[in-house]
Amino acid sequence: MRTKSVLSVVAVVCAATAFPGIAQAGCSDVLAALADTLADAICVPSADLTTNNPATTPANNSIAGLPGGAFTPQTDRNVISPDPPNRTPITRAVPGFQVTGRFADDPTGEARFLLRLPESWNGNLVVAGASGTRSEFNGDFAWSDYVLQKGYAYASQNKGVLNLKITSLSSPTPPTANSCRLNPSSQIWVEFYDNDPAKPFTQWTQYFIEATGLAKRAVKAQYNHHPRRTYAVGTSNGGYQVRRALEQAPDLFDGGVDWEGTFIDPRGPNILIDLPPAISNWPDYVASGFDPNSQAARNIEAAGYPPDMVSGSTSLWGLYWVQFWEVTQCQWQKRFDPSWPTYADGPNNVDGTGGYNYFARVANDPSIFSRVAAVATTGKIKRPLITVAGTMDALLPIKRGARAYEALVRGGDRRERDDDDDGDGRSGRYRLYEVQNGNHIETFKNTFPQLELIQPHAQKAFDLLIDHIEHGARLPPSQCIPRGGAIASAPSQRGHCPNLFVP
């Protein structure tokens, strides 16, 4: 006979209110259900699954045997959320079980899984993607805290990869073939696990789908009931995971929310096309004294980027240049076109990251196109999907990302029309909510108060999706959310925001 913990006994009482007729099991049952698919699995009872409990998110570099930077959960949860007091409010403790482990089918041992099972379960499951090359704890502030308090079981994964390893702290040149400079003014070099031969970007979709299957099995073991509904959520590369999951495995999901999802199309747009103009024109823009009328500034905006913002000696583009542009270009180029000399010498590095010409490279080597095509987003969604994106995103510009994906969903027809009238039914399942002055990094609002946070709109979009799927409410039309405003059922500005920046 199974011996139940005190927590499990309490769980049965709580479940009678949250999901009548469902008795809960415990860690032994959950681990048994995952025994053939999850390695090094650990299940622990928790008095609080939210981030108010310090034990919920492990410390950085807390997995023995991994180099520093490979596993950074504390850092990861900060990168997509605003600083306090604008983080997700936590109004109550959420007791339950937390399960962690590795996917047993990954020979590299990198693919990781996280599951949180609340005592008071509402009968549904949320599966989250991970941004950048971040860990399965990436969504703890933005998504987990939000949905757990509503009673959802929550699962996440790390796209099958660890983060990065430092290859040099003081080298003027790349110390290894796969090294990327952490920022253009640095002599710190790193290798991304994502660029290892055994880690193609196709695994990003694979492990999102596998995590969903594992989570559903664990939910059944814990509550003796499969989830009634399963929702996908994610930010940046995690938003890309949501799109691909709904395109490739719609039977597993009821709907999804992607927040600033990465757009990939071998014909363009894609990161390998969009980042080089920003990188190559940045030095001349600085030399102009941040002149918005300079040729360099015009070139960057012509490539699809929003206008710059300048406060004293700090530039919004400059924040992206220091933290994202070059290192992201390096990471993606080394995956899809590894023979290109990333850091070749030349004026303004025009022969390296800034001088990369995707179309010329594809003409020379068609296999580059094929590798990008293998991970492309198609827009062929079969479940309701909401995209929330900011007009001031200078990493994944809205013209080259969210709007490009919207065009795919609509079958390439960019004309204004009713959201439910596109002839093939896909467009009626899709909404794009543009956040006026929203950008890719929430904490940049600390420097530029004119920016708007996206997180509250992404969370509201989740609530609207639930109301649509579970109660038949009509989704508000695609719209421009004004500064200080909210998603509206009758918006004053349907469709795209007329201006990327509004003072």
List the defining traits of the structure above.
single chain; 503 residues; alpha/beta; ten-stranded mixed β-sheet; three-stranded antiparallel β-sheet; 13 helices; 30% helix; 15% strand; disordered N terminus
Outline the structure in words.
It is a single chain. With 503 residues, the chain is α/β, with parallel strands linked by helices. It has a domain of 87 residues. Helices cover 30% and strands 15% of the residues. It has 13 helices and 15 strands. The strands form 3 sheets. The chain has a 10-stranded mixed beta sheet, sandwiched between helices. α6 links the parallel β9 and β10. α5 packs across α6, α7 runs antiparallel to α8 and α7 runs antiparallel to α9. It is globular, with a radius of gyration of 22 Å. The N terminus is likely disordered.
Q: Structural class of the secondary structure composition?
A: alpha/beta
Q: How many strand elements?
A: 15
User: Which residues form runs of ≥5 with pLDDT under 50?
Assistant: 1-17, 413-424
Given the C-alpha coordinates, what overall shape results? Answer: globular
Strand content: 15-25%
Count of helix runs: 13
Helix and strand string, N-terminal first?
A: HHEHEEEHEEEEHEHEHHEEHHHEHEHE
The separation of the N and C termini measures: 67 Å
Largest sheet: 10 strands, mixed
What is the mean pLDDT?
Answer: 92
Rg measurement, Å: 22 Å
Strand order of the largest sheet: 1-2-3-5-4-9-10-13-14-15
Helix content: 25-40%
